[in-house]
Specification:
5-stranded mixed sheet; single chain; mainly beta; 5 strands; 45% strand
Amino acid sequence: MQIYDQKVDTQRFPGVTPGIESLKNFYQAFWSAFPGSQLSIEDIVKENNKIVSRYSISGNHKGTLMGIPPSNKDVKFGGITILQFNDDNKCIKR
């Protein structure tokens, strides 16, 4: 969480409002719902003040997340994240 600016804009996260505390709460809930999951970074691309990462996450759904009860099933999904940084090298947009 050290890379994030305190007022980071967290677009496209359901239920997450701008700011570091809301983002922390989302991540804590996510990793609680999928304890012991593995995050794999597939690609990273940097251009100007942005970093793009393509990743995959695999684990077992053991806890409630965003109202979805645990399924106790193995899951694997991928995604792409775009981070934008300011001149102080803090992420201002995710």
